[in-house]
Amino acid sequence: MAGTPFDEAVTRSITVKIEGDRYETMVGAEVDRGDCIVDAATTPKRMTITGTDGPNKGMTYLAVYEMDDEDSLRICYDLSGKNYPDTFDATQENGYYTATYQRETPKPAEETSR
């Protein structure tokens, strides 16, 4: 956040789920949901994120994103909602929030024995 890393316990508690034009973010037990409109035709690719439920209800954030592979998503948010970031660098000067999300590895089905 603005160039200052979050505590590892906080980062491990964050999950993001994007399906179609909807997102759900959980930070611990706190849930935030909303719309996520993607524009993959720009460079860098853009997202417009609008909270509909939770702590960001009514807020709109502009972001850029990139996927390094199918398992890694990096997003840089302008939390002021004024501009799409032109970089993935979060500094105190620009106030951006950059996060890299890793796809959760599916847990193997429990084997049952009889």
Provide the structure class.
mainly beta
How many DSSP H or I helices? 1
Averaged pLDDT: 84
Termini separation (Å)?
Answer: 51 Å
- Write down the secondary-structure element order: HEEEEEEE
Order the strands across the largest sheet as they lie in space: 1-2-3-4-5-6-7
Rg over CA atoms, rounded to whole Å, is 16 Å
Overall outline:
globular
Q: Could you tell me the strand content as a percent range?
A: over 45%
Question: Uncertain spans, ≥5 residues at pLDDT below 50?
Answer: none
Largest pleated sheet: 7 strands, antiparallel
Please give the share of residues in helix. Answer: under 10%
Q: Total strand count, please?
A: 7
Summarize the structure.
The protein has 114 residues and is mainly beta. It is 4% helix and 47% strand. It has a 7-stranded antiparallel sheet with strand order 1-2-3-4-5-6-7.
Q: How would you portray this structure in words?
A:
By secondary structure, the chain is mainly β. It has 1 helix and 7 strands. The protein has one helix spanning 8-12, and strands at 14-19, 22-27, 30-39, 45-53, 60-69, 72-78, 97-102. It has a 7-stranded antiparallel beta sheet. Strand 1 (14-19) and strand 2 form a beta hairpin. It starts with 7 loop residues before the first helix and ends in a 12-residue tail after the last strand. The relative contact order is 0.16.
